[in-house]
Amino acid sequence: MPKFLVDSHLAVYIFLKELVCLMRGTGRVKQPVLMIVFIAALWLAAGTASAAETVITILGTADLHGHIFPWDYARDTVDHETGYAKIASVVKAVRAENPYTLVVDAGDTIQGSWADFFLSEELHPVIRAMNLIGYDTWTLGNHDFNFGLDVLSRAITGSEATPLVANIYRADGTRWLTPYIIKEISGIKIGLFGLITPHIPRWEAGTPAHYAGLRFSDPITEAKKVVAELQDQVDVIVLVAHLGLNPEYGLPGSSLAAVLAANPEIAVAIAGHAHAEIDGVEIGGALVVEPGRYGHLVSRIDLTFETGHGAPQLVKKEAQNISTKHYSADPEIMEALDAYHAALRAEANTIIGRASADFLPQRYLLPGIPTVLVRDTALVDLLNAAQLKYTGAQISAASLCDPHRELVAGPIRKRDIYSLYKYDNSLLVVKITGQALKDYLERTARFYNTARPGDLTVSFNKNIRVYNYDLFAGIDYEIDISRPVGGRIVKLEYNGEPVGADQEYTLAISNYRFSQLVAAGILQAEDLLFDAYTAWGEAGRIRNLIIRYIQEQGVLEPAVDNNWRIVGVDPNHPLQAEAYAQVSAGELSLPRSVEGLNLTALNVYELMRAGRLPYQALTILHTNEIGDLLAAQTVWADLERYRQVADRSLVLGLGGGPDNLVNLFGYDALAVGGNRFFQQIADWLELDRRTDFPVLGANLYTDNSSLFARYLIKEVGGIYVGIFGLAARETGIEPNPTDDMRLTVADPLVTARRIVAELTGKADVVIALIDAHGNGAGAVTAKDLAEQVPGIDLIIAGDGRTAGMGGLLGETLIVPAGGPARGLGVAELLLQHGRITGRYVLSREDEPVVVGMGERNSQPVRQGKAEDTAKKYTIITNGFRVGGGTGVTKYQIQPGDTLSEIAQRLGVRLTDLVELNSISNPDLIYADRFLLVPVD
Questions:
Q1: CB 441 within 8 Å of CB 489
Q2: Per DSSP, what are the bridge partners of residue 54?
């Protein structure tokens, strides 16, 4: 029962006593009536004494980030749920309901929303707004240190709310700020204390003056100290913490949940830092709230105390988050600070230059996929151009704070740049080695989810915010998002030359990112060469340097250097347009992150399974000359990826030689090919005897008998596929004289016509595998086969060097077989009602080649990079080779595995693993990749 109701009952009791006395004195009231009235008065008094209740309300805000007015200055428009002016109205309404109300803030208060415009003010307008509202306490946040101790100290001095932080110490061991306060309300003592995340030195590593002389201790330890001091002095303990629920960088003490678990005496916690919206959850005995960010919400906690007998007892805790959207802005705040509001609007709308054209002609590739995150754009190149100009660095890295913003033709205002880059980061120059640069790129490439075969779009990692993804200038690089995290940078060049691991470069970077890289061990504190903030003050902040760059340019021309691209996803699949159209029409939607980014990719196989795309896809995976090669592991991994998602797939090989790898690849068929065959006929016969799949050689005979199977009919998900192989021997190549057999190589064209005739009516699709060197006199090529043998749907040719051999000839598609330089070859036939209506060819290294739906024009099929070109890229990987005669199996590396542990677990020698897999550094093994393991 609220205290003011208790007081009312006591007043009634006193009134009744006086009334009885008066009535008795007049003699007009009979004794029984007097007795009844007196008993009622006693009952009221007794009830009041035993059920007296007091409700104390705590209102909590957090992460206002400088927002005072309900206004978005970057867009110059009203924002109905932002700022202290809205919060003030909520506070007044609650105080009118219950005068026993405390107001607290959980940090990140003076930074953000153009608040830096007022850093020189003796009393910062944010602090003035808090004073007008009547805050009781204020716990500092990590961003409150962004402007240095002078600015922060002025804010602390001017604050009428008591700044609370228990875990910051001076060098002499004394606390820097008050750790806690005790507020007494209607006889109830409330202990409030503050904690801050201990990671300020990590995030401010580039500007150590911002926390000079201060030490940030473990929040769990400090909470125990404060609780021990408070618990005998107060009736309830309340924590106001700038801490997220989960630990950061593996430090348990940076977790609010861990603090509460270790301190069950804490009854209530108001949280900030994570921008989460928590409206009352029990953690470790505490009721926890968090009000999001910018003033969208105010957290309310009602604490009910029983105060009838002895010390007050907390009997009930209730919580809710109040939206500020439907509250009017408080006129007192608006009037008192209107001059600041007007000054900000004028500053925000200051014209600094002009854009000659749109910097982002296509804002979204698809809903949920901002173009700036999937391809190079003039928008990001603008940020990097400014950083490179004012630092003279060789390389620059920049992030977009909001990927949904743009820069359009016409006047450029300051608010446009605040929209593009809203954080108060300063610009640094650091030295970085080639290896550290690659590690940095690998770290930032985690932003993308791993692409699956058939993905038509990228998707984004829900655990990585956009501002932690960087885009680079000054280098050329490719991100293969089909690869596991840690092995995605497949091209990295500076000035056209491969980046050397030990080569040193200079890098322009934000102080925020530098701190993260130092914490990750990629860079060291001593790598810092130049700090623009130290040199130029506020002018050295990245946002101000971009403004300066535009002012100096006057008219800004959009320019794109196209220095990076994403590979490993199939954006040019012939079914892409149909899938995209369904998304654009709203018929398909994908789950989104809090930043509005797609968390799942559009996948052509999933869409076909769901009936969204009315086709059947036959996926043909093919290899050539896969033997003792470092490329084998990549091909192997790609095979596994396709098998997991493609409903109808075939694995076909052409050539490659008889070695231990063919059994591991899981072929459906292998065709003879390459001049090596004629030198190793006996080995091929042995291979044919010991494998579960057939070796195909339709035109190879001995003593008028077929040497190998002539063709194979394979049923794949309801599609019947006829496959045959042809040998096209070059002039001058004779069988190995040690082979005791008379080999006849029949005319490939004649043989092919016979095979196709036999397959007619039996197979829906016909595939030919041919070794088509075409270098010898009269040799038959894949082009000959396509032009002279109708009825073949796909020819996989074993030598990609043949000029003009690729493309669609009539009804036949010719593709070069996958190989050492190209990796796994992928061809796809799309069928409707048993008829091929589309064809798709994917080359790992080059742009995909698309043969559109129903097209019948010849198109050149691009070949992969030549081996001498591919060798110039430095790729850290576990390539392998196969020892002579050793049986092998495969092992997929698990997270946390070490090579020695794998050897011990599998009962093999470490040296055998190293030798078999050609591992130069046993520490460089990666999760999800495969090792070859020797077996008896």
A1: yes
A2: 305
